[in-house]
Amino acid sequence: MAVAARPRLYRKTVGRRHSRSLAHGLDDLSDESRPSVLRTITDVQVKNVVERTLEEVPAGSTRWSKWELTRGVGISPTSVLHI
Questions:
Q1: Do 46 and 54 contact (CB within 8 A), yes or no?
Q2: What's the whole-model pTM score?
């Protein structure tokens, strides 16, 4: 498969899409459903992180670190970084 040799394309993905295009036509490729992951943080938690970073300065520092925000808001460091 010459297409799978391109950078950032995986043989498995190319093969799956090729099989789908043969079975259902090219129009079927654009509406492929993907599994979703449920959100673990709420809109209120996102709002709290954004408000703290824009409106408050942490004691003894000039800017927030992910660890200070994590302790202050109560979500994981990864979630803070995503926000």
A1: no
A2: 0.53
Is the confidence at residue 48, as pLDDT, over 80? yes
Residues 65, 70, 71, 73: what is their CA dihedral angle, to the nearest 10 degrees? 120
Confidence of residue 50 (pLDDT cuts 50, 70, 90): very high
The two structure tokens encoding residue 75:
């979500």
Neighbour tally for 73: CB within 10 Å = 20
The percentage of residues in the chain with a pLDDT greater than 70, rounded to a whole number, is 71
Determine the distance from the C-alpha atom of residue 79 to the mean position of all C-alpha atoms in its chain, rounded to a whole number. 10
Instruction: Report d(CA 67, CA 46) in Å as an integer.
Output: 15
**By C-alpha distance, which of 62, 51, 82 is closest to 72?**
51
Q: Please, which residues have CB within 8 angstroms of residue 50's CB and are 6 or more apart in sequence?
A: 83
